[in-house]
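TODO from last week: model Alkaline phosphatase family protein.
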Amino acid sequence: MAPDAVDPVLPRPDRPGLPDVLPSLLASVSGTGGAFALPPARAAALLLVDGLGHALLHDHAADAPFLAAMAEAGPLTVGFPSSTPISVTTLGTGLPPGAHGTIGVRFRVDGSLLDALTWTADGHDARKTLVPETVQSRATVFERAAADDVASTVVSDRAFRESGLTRSALRGARYRGVGAFGDLADELLDALARPGRQLVYAYHADLDQLGHLRGPGSRAWRWQLRQIDRLVEQLAAELPDGALLAVTADHGMVTVDRRHDADTDPDLRAGVALLGGDPRARLVYAQEGAAADVLATWSAVLGDDAWVLPGEEAVARGWFGPVGHGLLSRVPDVVVALRDTAAVVRSEAEAVLSRLPGQHGSVTAAEMEVPLLVQTPT
């Protein structure tokens, strides 16, 4: 397949994006305006459907008629890399990746490669050595809500209650652990119905899981989308008086069919000290003095399959948004964003992930653009 004939899709400072979603819902509840000018509400909930890209939703609108018919304030652009821990932290803080510092699925912090999904480094639990509240020290939207006397609730998988990512991105809210659609719906509606002003964030992961395992748009993926559509329709029908419901996503997804293996290609290993990111967005940390050679080699090996640029150039172009004080050390020497249907896998270090057909993380429209759908209060 010919390479993309378009430029990278990146957030634009003149347009609202994913960082503005929860602050706008909080503004709707507190009556202070907001980037999306949502109507006033006594309570507001955001349902994050992991992996529901804007293009995927509209390509499969027949499988999600209720979602497709909802009022849309989008598409929105997420931050780079377009992967879950980056976007969840962006949602939770209202800040772009460069400002909150979670700039990859795996990125360098104090010399170690931190996996932001599992909060591990070198295969070990890093919550004591790389304390989540220190790695991501900016206030969350939920902490700001508490200061404005708005109660917050996070509804998500019970396994994530004490995770590093939850502590980093979602602290300040009451956590309600769930295991299925029924749990999620019950807890979300219960939180919205509580007395006073309420802000609710709910997370559902299964569409993303099936996209990874079976491919986005596969029959299994479409069946899951139908279930989500029915869930949202039922939630909208049972919203308490004065409550608003919004639906968005953390990224889209593409099906990959060309894999470069960084664990078996000696050229891609040469001069590399740490290799972070994920298959569609690699963060390459070079050995001392080797950055220029690594940049040249990765550019030559990947050719038209990737955008390859120095980390400092990615910062200057705004790929991560403004990078906060003290966070430049997390930026890699080389940023690699894959094009079309290519991926850079690690068959040894990331054996399962490397085999999955569905991937995301790069700067294509299919991965960077997500919907923002709104059911207004009655």
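Done. The CA atoms of residues 136 and 276 lie 18 Å apart.
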